Predict the 3D structure of the following.
Amino acid sequence: MNFLIQETDILLKSGEKEPFTFYKGEKAPMLFELAALICETFEFAFPYMKGFFRMNYDTTDIADKCFQSILMHDFGENIIQHNWGNPEKITSLDALRKKILTAIETGKECPQRL
């Protein structure tokens, strides 16, 4: 386990468990590591995505959460660079969101990796 990141669950009043992460000693939402999981670990591969998010996941919702995760993550720029090339060549946030959605919908590796 990385000493800077500790994952645990909290028990909600409803009795359900809610996972969350302590990042650098502060509470961080699960969303924080979602981009690294989807882009770097799963590499957008459909079998992994299906297994993690369940059979019928909403690609637009997952793309939006991944987009938010990239924007908040310290290594968001690195994730962009690794998957889509030079971040400076992405002309807008909407263009980035579309790239993420396309990668998730196609379940294929990004052009930068080919």
About this structure: The chain has one domain: 30-113. Strands lie at 5-11, 17-23, 26-28. The CA atoms of residues 8 and 38 lie 20 Å apart.
